[in-house]
Design a protein that fits this description.
Length: 135
């Protein structure tokens, strides 16, 4: 082989070797950058999970407080209902006649008929259903 061909082959081998080395080094750097990015992503993901758990715990404590308040209100309303029922029973026992309830004449008539167990054969007009229509 002549010297020019040998130098050309040597230069070509050197260029190919340089390209291969550059490609390898670029891959290493790319891997390092990717690993650094993945570590950052993992850190952000861990922080997000920690924040989500913290928010969930705060929500659970808030829900528990609201539930305690709801149960307390439910208990209070049940107590109020029982108290109102007792008061109505006391009032009815103290005022057995409907006159104390400010009923009109037809209301007293209906009350007394119902108390006696006698149902009226006539329709009840206490709600105004049988009033004549005025035009």
């Amino acid at each position: 082989m002549n010297a020019i061909a040998l130098r050309l082959i040597l230069a070509l081998a050197l260029v190919i070797g340089g390209m291969a080395t550059g490609w390898t080094v670029r891959g290493w750097r790319s891997d390092a950058v990717e690993a650094k990015r993945d570590a950052g992503d993992a850190k952000v993901a861990a922080e997000n999970v920690a924040q989500a758990r913290h928010d969930d715990a705060a929500n659970q404590s808030g829900v528990a407080q609201v539930e305690r308040e709801r149960v307390a209100r439910s208990t209070e309303s049940g107590t109020e209902f029982k108290q109102i029922t007792r008061e109505v029973i006391r009032y009815v026992q103290a005022n057995p006649a409907p006159d104390g309830c400010n009923l009109g004449d037809s209301g007293v008539r209906i009350w007394r008929a119902a108390s006696a167990g006698k149902a009226s054969a006539e329709p009840d007009d206490s709600a105004g259903a049988n009033r004549p229509v005025s035009r």
